[in-house]
Amino acid sequence: MSLVAAELERHGIATVAIQLLRVAAEKVRPPRALLVPYRHGFPLGRPDAPELQHTVIEAALRMFEKTNAAKPQLSKFVEDSD
Amino acid sequence: MAELGDFSLKHRLFLKSYPWRRIDPVPRTELTRPLAECRLALVSTAGFVRPDQEDFDPSVRGGDPSWRAIASDTPVSSLVDTHRSETFDHRAMCQDPNLAFPIDRAHELVARGRIGSVNQQHLSFMGSITAPGRLIRDSAPAAARVLRKDEVDIALLVPV
Questions:
Q1: In the prediction, which pLDDT does B70 show?
Q2: Taking Cα atoms as reference points, which of B123, B111, B112 lies closest to residue B150?
Q3: Which of B15, B95, B148 is the closest to A23 by Cβ?
């Protein structure tokens, strides 16, 4: 997936990738990656939980708005327990 | 977040020896307009197909590098899981494909004014590609050209 992200970036499309496996993000280095605390099969949190899914996506979208970010840009998503 | 220790011994050994392809240099496109004006496409590696599309081919050695275009008005509940991996529980994403292919969430982002529009099509890939040569050489550039032609500004990539 990160390799597809890199190709999109080379074509002028800004990308952000949800990342489930820390080692993959560290080794492959996608341009922007949001590390989420979920296991494989649950990339946006939980099924039928649209607001949680939106919260994860919003965290990813905010990465686009961060200027002068490092390359690669990695952020960690922490689910609010409230 | 998954760590290596979360996996079975078999998969830990697989991941430890996995030939990760390091992206270097890291390409980066900056936004040229606000998100509220951007067009979004989704790229998922959950291996979903529409019922009228061919399944990804599990017999392709190293993983099927092809992709499927998923029209933006496709009912998300109609997506069919063809992911070949047995290393994760498929039930949740079959129950709610938005979990790995958030088409409904994308449309809601437009309704909320957070993004400008949703592209007419999204891209579905197979994950767990262990031999990504054809993906890098052929499939990914072709996919990028399609989204570029659609004037997509931003892409959200979701693995499974």
A1: 98
A2: B123
A3: B15
Min Cα–Cα distance to chain B from A49, Å: 9
A78 and chain B in contact, CB less than 8 A: no
ipTM over the 0.95 cut-off: yes
Residues B74, B70: Cα–Cα separation, whole Å? 7
Residues with Cβ within 8 Å of B67's Cβ and at least 6 positions away in sequence, in order, are B123, B124, B125, B139, B143
Q: What is the largest CA-CA distance in chain A?
A: 40
For the stretch B42-93, pLDDT in tens is: 999 999 999 999 999 989 998 999 999 999 999 999 999 999 788 889 999 9
Single-letter residue type at A1: M
Q: Which two structure tokens, joined as six digits, stand for A66? A: 């961060």
Tokens standing for residue B129 = 């590609």
Q: What residues contact residue A71 under an 8 Å CB cut-off, 6+ apart?
A: A31, B25, B26, B28
Beta-carbon count within 10 A of A59 CB = 18
B95: closest chain A residue by CA: A47
Range of the domain at B86: 36-158
* Coil/strand/helix, residue B126: strand
The terminus-to-terminus CA distance of chain A in angstroms comes to: 32
Residue B141 is assigned to a structural domain of this protein:
yes
Domain segments of chain A as ranges: 2-76
Instruction: For residue B125, give both structure tokens.
Output: 């890939």
Collect the ranges in chain A with pLDDT lower than 50: none
| B1 domain residue, yes or no | no
Asked if residue B2 belongs to a domain, the reply is no
Specify if B17 maps to a domain.
no
CB pairs under 8 A between A and B: 203
